[in-house]
Amino acid sequence: MPKLTFKRFATMTLAMTALGAFSAANAQEALLYAGGAVGLANTDVGQIVFNQNALGWKAFVGTHPISLLGAEVSYLNLGSPNRTIQGIKQSASTKGMSAFGMIYVPQPLPLVDFYGKLGLARLQADANAYEANCGSSGSGCSLFSFSTKNTTMAYGFGAQAHWGAIAARLEYEHFHTAGGLPSMWTAGLSYGFL
């Protein structure tokens, strides 16, 4: 059995959603959307016991062809927080791609959607620690440095209100990477077309 990679998962998710758009008897016209969001991101890197908040953002595209199902692919950046503890500077950054299958909760409010999302994220985490008073050359100052990229499960949930082609959303996403559990709360806008 072939290994499930991020690219394969994203392709399968979008293909299944597109198939549902054209084969479901009660499906509405396929709706594609694109948007962006900003918010509070938490970079959690277990190897250096680093857990800091920063401004994060993401850009996304998705489809919601039938009332209960959708799919979304996004690029996200959880920011680059840093701190100094007892003369040691620490910094970290997490960024990458995610692909989610989305399930919308049936409810009677026509302008509001509640949804859950489950998928995969391919994230790169970089972190380092070095002596704060080491001078400008930096040689011999580094105490710890690593860069890792992995693909793991991710989940989230959110709510959105829509007026015609425009939607405003609040959302939470949670990831596993670099021995930590980064996450992000965002507020964003999307525009539907097709």
Structure description:
By secondary structure, the protein is mainly β. The chain has one domain: Beta Barrel (Porin). 9% of the residues lie in helices and 64% in strands. The protein has one helix at 6-23; strands spanning 32-45, 50-66, 69-77, 82-85, 88-104, 112-131, 142-163, 166-175, 183-193. An 8-stranded antiparallel β-barrel has the order 1-2-3-5-6-7-8-9. It is elongated. The two termini are 36 Å apart. Residues 17-30 have low confidence and may be disordered.
Order of helices and strands: HEEEEEEEEE
User: Regarding CATH, which class?
Assistant: Mainly Beta
Low-confidence stretches: 17-30
Named at the architecture level, the CATH assignment is Beta Barrel
Biggest β-sheet strands, sense, barrel: 8 strands, antiparallel, barrel
- Helical coverage, percent range: under 10%
**What is the end-to-end distance?**
36 Å
What would the average pLDDT be, to the nearest integer?
A: 81
β content, as a range?
A: over 45%
The assigned structural class equals mainly beta
Output the radius of gyration: 19 Å
